[in-house]
Batch of 3 targets.
Target 1
Amino acid sequence: MDSHLITGTQQLMRFFISLLMVILLFPSLSSGEDNEKQYSLKGNVSDHSTREMLTGVNVYLKGTITGTVTNERGFYSLEIPEGNQTITFSFIGYKTLEKEVNINDDRILNILLEPSEELLGEIQITAQRRFFGNMEYGRELPSINAEAISKQNSGNASDILHARVAGVWATKTSGAPGDQQKIRIRGQASFFSSAEPLYVIDGVPVPIVNLASLGIADLNIHDIENVTILKDASSSSLYGYQGGNGVILIDTKQAKENRIDFTIKTGLQWFDNFYDLMDTKDYIESLELAKDNIKSWVWYFCPTYSDTLCSHDRQDEIFKNGIVQEYQLSGSGIKNFFKYYLSGNYTRHGGILTGSLYERATAAARIGRNFGSKLALNLSYRGSYQNNKNNQNEYNGNRLIFEGINKSPCLECTPDSLIYFPNPPPVINKRIHFDYRILNDPELLQSIIDDNQHQLLISSHSLSLMGRYQISHHWNIDLMESAMYRKSVYSSQSEYYDFFSKLYPSKGNVDFLSDEEVRLLNHQINLSYNNNFGLHEMEFLLAHRVYADNLSWEVDSLNNTLPEHYYLRNSMAGYGMKGSVIRQMSSYIAHVSYNFRNTYFFSAIANLSRLKEGVSIDYYTLFPSLSLSWNIANEPFLSTTSWLDELNFYTNYGVSGNYPLNGLSNDLYGYVPYSSGGEGYKDAPYVDQFANHFLKHENTQELDLGLKSSFFNGRFKLNAAWYTKKIDDQIIQRDIPLYYGGGKIFINLGDIEVKGYEMGFEAVPVQTKDFSCYVKGNFSSSEQVVTRLADGQDMLFYSADVLFPEFIVKEGEALGNIYGYKYLGKWKEEYEGNKLYYNDVGSAFLNIDTTFRKLNEDDKVVIGNSVPDFTWNLSGSLQYKNFSLDFTLYSVWGVDKFNATRASTILTGVNRDAIPFYADSVTAMRYNAFYESSLFIDNASFIRLKTVTLGYEPEKKLWGIGLSFSLSFENLLTITNYRGYDPEATIFTDNNFSDNAIDKGAYPNPKGVFATVNMKF
């Protein structure tokens, strides 16, 4: 494990050294032997007021046709002859600037452009990535702009990062409409606390509740202008207790021109990767075989086969085609000194499961105005309403898939042809093996469909005010005030079939209702100073931030017990029946940065933060960070390398925290019925989750080494980084012994170390007047090792469900290890007499603990790991005149998954793969070890063609309307050895190390085709 990381790090460093040697030894390759010697003038162009890097600025040598444009980082490189020259900088909306330079004096020229005469009175509101000062150097800040976002097929904002950024593992764990991606930035770094990044939308931080981020699905993807990812602790330390898992900054659109956009999208989704389930004839014959050979319990359900028996493929009844409809309308412009952007969206998404439906309506407004030449204000509002039916991300997976496909193909046949034994056989070895007696259960498939009536209603509103007061050209005050309110109501409804008629359901009952509300306020004010002194640039910032949130919830169960599906992601119902928690975080931030010749950069941040939750938790923490950067391309000895734009080596160190909003510091109560002596039963409160009044945040310390490079005026870019981070004071859940009253409590216990490296490249290999080609790729790898546990004791996570594997966390082992028995296949003669092998009624298992004649817990070994070794993605864009082709490939490699869905179909006998076990008299399938073994561990690695999009935009308008058309395909091809529905899909669990490990009725990602028409007025 460590040697693997060391080898990877050595390879990365060898690459750095090789690249540096090429540059140092062969600078003359680009100098040429022209009659007049040429030199490379380099620099950045940015806005005079906000210091935003300007993309597309024209830079040319006056009096000639020699010129270039700045790239998305505001960088330019221009070849000019020696002597005194005049360089012209021009950009729409800004004053044209001419600058006298002498290339013999210095070859670095940074430019600040001022707005044109028409815009001189406008003060620009700075983007979030600049709100804390200059963060462009000393780290990599990947970003995704509106153009790239518009090419994505999804209407879900959580899909933005999918297959886009190195170091970001974004996986679509569920194909359910309205569900969100699982995002991990630089590894899985927590046991029980959240591993989700913090989203900040127009200054509104989105709370993290019960392991997952709220609200990102509330956002309309068409309203997004830019997304910036803070991956390292040196930048995420700005958010203190909330930044430990990385931060994603989202800026929404504002007015740029007078225009109206209307978009219509329609699509079809389908799923066809089915299990090989048996028809009635083969099914009954297999049960007869089981009855004769292994005396299995499943034979109790066996009817006598006849041609009159019906035969159903349950997968055809469960899965259906999904229809997607979306309507988007937006308008922007300038009216009476106001700049405005208005947007509305309606989406209706029918899922690929029967009864699955998601509807969402969003509205957004952003209004800005300048008051004189000193003050600018910008007010934005976002609201959404969501209706999500039958596809909630539940702890036990989707019941319709898991139980539905296990119904026999002849269940709806005539009653006299079926024999029911509803009472289950006895439990064996304390694992609920025979809880999956679906063949013995008379419940019809239709009753499961009707009983799967879950509904999640979400309404959210957020308001943000941003302002800037320009004291002078060098001093500014920035203000950000934001508020959010979000209400979630989850309910489940059950309908029951009469056992004898099986025709009409009884009246439905609401069994479970959860009402949850989240409120937050966020305030931030900055005082910043920025000035250039020749080749020196100095920036200083002081900021004060106050963040406060309040979560309250109440659960109502008419049956006095919570149903199996109560434990939802984002829901507090799993922690207690009722509760409320108020949390406040305040920060005092100082940031100083220095830039010399665009070559040497230094940045230091100090964030003194206070965390206050409930009445007991109240303490301060210092989150420091330091960044250093050296752009070797701007050194004089590389002045003749005109093809080298940037070669920036950087290192940074930072500290950040992780403290999700889970109400962990408060006692949480549940209710149980009790007899009051003659007065019937009443509800009595009890403490279900005990408070820890000394609970602290998880603390992340991270060190980065990296490289950013650019060649041939931005035609080719290469980024690479190596990082190591330690996360201590891990928040875990512990059971309280019964002699102390029982219950659970969260405590700080244990450390995790994460190491990894990442690489990314961008290239424009071909660019002509009519044709261009763009390609981008990323590679990421990380390993998570548990370095400390209290007293060195292992943490064992055990479920009575035999179709849940065990997870044992041990010091020195990787996070995500899956434990079980090593299944070796059929018993062989060569195993006889060898104590290392155990014969479990015809099946061979590895017997580590040879002192016992039976398999026990000591024989369990690591049979898989649910955290991937590495991920990579490749995307490209081809443009020919008015036609375009975009594609995205995505891969996750070296990841294992327990396929509980497949195991259930073997247990219940509906899968054709069960026949060999019956035929060979392998009675081991009657026992728990069979299902707790590596037999059902699948390699879930895959390569997926995520999206392919064809686009066309006519040159001429039609009736004054600009049109564009696109046809998109998703998930058309997946290469994998996974034996289940979808290698990417997984169920939600209550911890991070098993969250990607189990497929137990996981909602698969469908294939799809979508047509979109956009009209611009």
Target 2
Amino acid sequence: MKNIRKILLFIAVAVCFVTVGFSVRGNEHMNYSNVLAEALSEDSINTFFDIGRGKPKIEWNQDYTYVKSGYLPSKYEINSSEYTLALDVKAHGEDLRFRIEVGRASGKSSLAQITVDSKNNSVNLYNGSANLGTYDFGGLFKAETWYQLKIVTKDTQLFFFVNGKLAAQMTDAKGFKGAFSFRSVGGEVYLRNLVCYETADIPVINQYNTVGILAGGDLVTLAGKKQNITFHPTTDHTYTDLRAEISDNSGVIYEEISINAIQGNYSFEYIPRGTAGNQKIALYDGNTVIGVADIYVEARTAVITEDASFNNFYNTLIRQVTTRNQPVYTLNGHTFKMHMSWLRDHIHMMEAGIYWQTGYKEVLDFWLDNQHPDGYFFEMIVDPLSAGGKSYTEGSDKEFYTDTDDPNYILLRFEIEADIEFLVVNAVHMEWQTTGDSEWMASRIPNLEKALSWIMNNPERWSKEYGLPIRGSSVDTYDFTYGHNTGNRRVVWWEKGMDWGTPMAVFHGDCTGFAQASCQLAEMYRATGNNERAEYWEKVSDNVMKNLFAATWNGNYFAHMLQVHPKLEDLPEDWQEDLAGDWTRLSYSNSCALNRDVLTQSQAASIINSFKTLRDNLPKQETVTGYADESLFAEWVTIYPSYRKKEYVKYDPGNYINGSIAPFCGGELARGCFQWGYADYGYDIITRLKSLLERDGGLKFFYQQNGEIYYYSGKSSGGPDAWGAATVHNAIIEGLAGFNSSSMLLNSITLSPSWTVTEYDNVYASVSYGENNKYLAYSANYDENGGKLSYEIVGDSQTITLKLLMPAGKIPQMVTINGKAVNFDKQAQEHSAYAVITYTKQSNADVDMVVVDFENGTLPDQKDPSQQGSELNPWITPDPDYPYNNHTSSSNKLLKYGLFALEIAAALVLALGTAVFLAKKSLKK
């Protein structure tokens, strides 16, 4: 009956949709992305930039215009030596590169030039032909983002501001002034809102900014990154009592340094710290101020090693996550920018994006405010008239998509999925941690509880038999229903006698994600003082994990899918043949489980060793007919072995979701390796991913089993490359660099750097969130000959747990903090040895020097690295002649035979009851 109702409902909805489509959506969907300012003539651009002599103030506030590569006409002179130009700039494409020149309006050379290059994350200053320095901005400028620029001249000084922050300063020694030029370099640069006014209108310049005291340093620098400053006197005066005084953004003086002359120059060294933001270096001769420099100390997530190729690898990952074309929507009263239109993928990118970007709360508010009344979340913004949009709506019931106030967009959810609810919980928890906005978090708890409760109380989402979430059987977390290769994403409840339906299964990735989200919801409840609900959700999480291990743990890792409705034996025979192999299929979400705080050490080690064993015994590549002679190029599989029945999974064995190699699996696996004591394996994965990125210019979404880029419908990868880049970035920041925050705004953090497994002896690393200026940074030094590890730590974190990895074959001997020996724990984790200590940081103005002396040896419970994986059950290599496996867990067998026994008992009782009834009836006659 339920099936008949669904079919009738579908037909009715289809008729209504077609009718409305002809009447409401008859107008062609206009693509505004091409409606630019191409219509502007060269003369109108000239007029735009013709500031003109004697015009101290002029404004141009159209939406925007744009210039392609080349100079704009140089005819904009200003009859003033003190003026400010302000305008908004945005680049189209991957790079933002432009040059601003202040000096003579005629002639081939300009005397003061500022070149911004987002590709190399730098700003270059020139005075005439002399390069005054290159300043690292580390991704400050990003394509497809508007920035307000201010170019301020005052006497012979030139100042360059970005979004109100001083970015660069220089002196135009020859004093040419009164002209402005603009050049875009490579690609298109968009401009708007030009304003020119006298500098006196804004008090931005300190009167002492007249000496080049930062000739050897950076005007914009990273918190915690040591600076070497040289002061070049402009006269022959000899200073006998020269000192520098450095104050932070809150006015606290955190450094006072006496400066001595070396070969006629005066140099000093300091570590930028304190409250990040605008800081000052004041130069004193005795008690007389002779100069003040404004600097900007930036709180930013960064990694800098001695190896330029590694630094470029890391920065490329950042660019992949942040510079893709991020759509901006105005829907149902909300304006917000997403990484892409799929909420699921957006959240996966958000996991790395929180370290630089802002605006995530606006995204979450939109989806939370548009939660379905039943409790589930929609997961994508769809243009229903596009080819992709039509395929989505055709594969979904109308119940699972809804209109917005923009006729060009609908909201849609794939019915088979069971992950979007727990992902939204993850995202709200992340936003709370990065912003510290507890009031907002508390206001969103009802949405989150409603979503998780919808899963638990919906028979099409929850198995009472197993006490676990269920989904339409698919390939790992992907959105294609097994058994239907037409793009179907529906759940059609399978009744007896049906020829087809949606096989429903327990999928381990949904379960570990649900358990993690339950714990996060409990943490949020506890922060609001509601301990009763916190305890409830903690119990839910515990029960899910106990049930999951009982149902799907195959001895080494989580089995892929456990068919629950119908049971495996009740499915069509050719489906059974394929799905029976799920007991030994290793899939991507096992790597995710490592990072969800739901495993014990032995469970995590078993999963890691399973991937590691696969790496060391790479099986043959899969083909439609069997197996090739060559082996897989990497172990970061979406699923292995793949499904053989292409007609039921849509993709050939070894292709796309059905067995390709995915960097997002490699990134999750590497991150887990660092957490669970396998740093050497984690770094091995990162090194191989680095080689892929260098070969292809960036990481791709999927790779074929032979290592070549996977092409889907003519496009590389077939998915968002930034997803993989985000997971690999976090494997570096949270794994290799070791920043693992356990509280809001980095207040409490575990710092566990693993650079001792790399070739780098000197590393700078820092962490911050895009939403605020809180940070933690360190400089690490590895002295192998001296037997020491040293860390200079600065930042805002208050409670720091140091978990410091020793070099191979070494154990910690002594730990000192700021020269004082402290008690510490020697901790073994698998074959790794650590020095562990928790301490309270007194002030962000302090530099904490932590030194670990080490010696040869192993800890008593430290495992032999050559034995890693020996405790595993034998790895099951697919037989090329019969690539299926019919293993059934003992718990499932017990359940199966137990139910069978109950069925027999029930039948006997029924038969006996019937016999008694008939006998009584016969006696009455």
Target 3
Amino acid sequence: MNCTIRKMVVMGLVLMSGTLTWAQAAGPLKLLLPLVRTAYQTNEIIDVTVQRAAAVPGELKVNLSDSSGIQMAFTFPAARAVEHLHMNGALLRPGKYTVTVADGAATANTEFEVFSNIRKSSYRLVNWGTAQGKDQLLQGADGFGYNLFYGQAPGDELIRAGVDAMGVCVMSGAHQMDLRMECDWSDPYVTRGGTQRVAKKAFEDRSRGNVPGVHFYDEPGLTWWKNPATGEFGPHGIPAQVRSFEAAFGRLAPDITKIDPKNPADVAAWKHWATWKLGFMDSAWKESQFGVSYVRPDMISLTQSQYGFSAFTDGYYFNVVRSLPIISGHGGYHDSSPGYFNPSYTLEMARARDLTRDCWYMPTWFGVTTPDEFRLEQNLSFQTGVEGMITPPELDPSRKPKALEAILECNKAMARLGTIFTTMPITRPPVAMLYSISDLIETQTADHNMNYASGSEQGKCGVFTYLAGKMLQQQFLPIVDEDVVDGTLAANHKAIILPSIRYLDPAVATALEDFAAGGGLVLLAGDCKVQIKGAVNLGVNPALPDEKTIDKLIEEIKKDGKGEWGRLDPYQTVAKHFQGTEPLAKAIKAQLDKAGIKPIFGCDASGIVATRQAEGDIEYLFAVNATPDAASQSRNAMKATSATIALPADGKTVYDAMQGGPAKAKEKYDFGCGQMRVFALTSRPIGAVSVATPAITNDLTQMKNPISLRLAATVLDNKGGVLSGSVPLRIRLLDPKGATRYDLFRATKFGTIELELPLAANDPAGEWKIVVTELLNNTEGQAIVRYQPAPKCGALAGMTRRAAMLGGEEANLFRFARVNHAVTIVKGTGDYNAAAERLQKILAPWGVKCAIVNAADVNKPRSLTEVEASTWVGMTFAGSGQIKPGEGNPLTVAGFAIEGPVILLGTPEDNPLIKFLADQKFLPYAPKTGEFPGAGRGYLAWQRDGIGKGQESITVIGYDTDGISEAVGSLYEAVAGLDPLTPWTLPLANSIKAAQ
């Protein structure tokens, strides 16, 4: 093995090691990167621990050099055997760095890299991925085009790729937790266990700058069970739900088997119950979000929802994540009705009444998805105005490149154009389509096996009604009963279609009659039984053309028991759905034409799907080719087509929003399969991009963006006025040497953008150029700003004064003493008596009463009762029946035999509770004898949900008397709110200069 190869192998082992690794040193000096990472972002602190030969007074000379040769020098006083240094990544330009520390004649060095935390596009492009290791380097904007990775291993390579990362399905997946039918989302024993899991993940990732949050679960739903009284298997009478109802109302929940649909009191009781239980799914996420936010308030919480929009008995109606900041959903895949329209149909139905929050959506799943199918399903969903698009594990391009061409195409287009959806609201079209919960619940009172909207007459007709809009270049926006009653319908729409609705609550029916009396158009589609004064019955009940054949085949397939459902495909193709929809589409068109409600644009091809998004002076018209191939018997067969599109320009200027540049108001276009064209219509022609004189702020008292360039740009019309609306932009910042510092896609809001871009202490001096290009007509504006970095920047580096802890931990320690007043101190086997008694004494004035116990006394699993064990969910997976009453369950399932908040004294070597927290990754830095926190040094860390459900804990770690003493004293300072005047000990001297 030659020298070069040997060095590469050694460096690879160092980078891949999961334990603390010391850098090579000349002499007794050693350096440690305690986060065990060599890749960091500009929104992070880079920690460096220095192990000296002895605890003697001296000075540490720290030199930090980047790849350009700039030298940053700092001098720190040193008196302890171990010193903890820090460097603020916000003050470092992206690049590779070498840090060299000298302590007298002894020197040591180590290397790390810094990458920007600013993503190229503000639009979320998400890979629910499987890539590991080096394959993750391909994920970013310069590779596959993603900026967020849903996956289980958010490693350093994603930082290098410029991609954010989130652990996905951290709780689990499938309808019930851990696939246990007894575990319902209304049960606190279940939901609090789920919270443990997401809180644990938040602790594991809270020290990573590219992790914005935690993703919870996939495809959750309220459970089903076998009713012991009736023997029926179904979603009714779930014990945990019944207990919750009794807790809320002090009376028994209604029994579906005893509901008399002719008894008004019974019907009213069931409607109350069925509507009330719709809050359970969101309440579960509220519990889990609380756990994540308690760990780190800026972390976002997500879970997959949307897929089950029609499962109202399983807890779904309009979106079930109302308390979460982001909607993350998926289909409705193309293996069922209505084929490749199913993903966008599911998206639009599930987003009813929930249009204001960001939505990241995944249309497809299957690894056999063709590039054409992928392109079409992505575009059909994108055009509805979502703020992010997701691709599935089955199509991760680093592992399964089958759809790579389409993924690259979609990611590239959406990175540029999708930014408009981040700055403008959803545009409501003139026509709405009612999704009525009152109709579904009314039906259920007579037929308690009717548990899904998709199986109801309303649901069946709703699919055809949805497709009718697509065929007519209209968008029929799904709305719900509440939208009709609260005035949303009257305020935003000109017409509403009711698909085969048999019943409406009186308030909904009255509001619809008022809407009709006020000039609104109410259309009754399918077998609509409800009576609405002023409504127009279309007289069309749509169905697939081979409905009788399908029914016969279904019976045969069920009888055979072989699951040969693919035999239905030739009779349920998208082309067949179009054929079945055509009579309804014609009837609707006649009424809309009569009412003067025009399509989004004129088109001579029914397979071109249109949507419109508009605000201010700009409107965007989307056209996606979803033309089915009627000659094929494949369910999702599609074909290319030609279509003449006539845009309602009305004197407006038309641009090609996909390519940039002028477009014609009427033109014949060739469309490939799934191809999307986007037209921008502006009230006045684009004239110029005006970039305001930028400003650079330098406030070294701030840890976040201490140096930043603030810019503003405005898109003007041809007469110098502001062109109000959302315009996609490309923004580039070039340094004095012509190198690109930032190259970003963003969008204006009301014609203007304001942006703050971090700069670094080691960025080059001179004239910096800002180039802003609007992407509708490729008009460009520029501005110049001069940046002169200071020759000193002492805020870039600092030293820990007392015990080591993660940045921001002081606030958690302060809060701990404010919300917990009866605490147990659990000490390890070392000599911690004095430290425990000191803690007991110093916390007493804050109202914190401490009991002291030995770790050995509580180092056993919590004893579970029979009631708890039956549905208990812990930190790790346990199947049905595996959790038993008593003390025999694993610690990761039951937690420790101690209640309430605790303070743990010791080390992982002598306190098993601390070792457990370290093994479960609750500690940001891994403590280890002789390494971290080091001789004479203490270490503090705060946790929640590690010792047990909802329990807070503080670890007070030190490997010797001085270390424990420092940790105890530092804890007191945090509890007392004694923040130092500056976060770190500042250097005695510092300088920045370029290499000679």
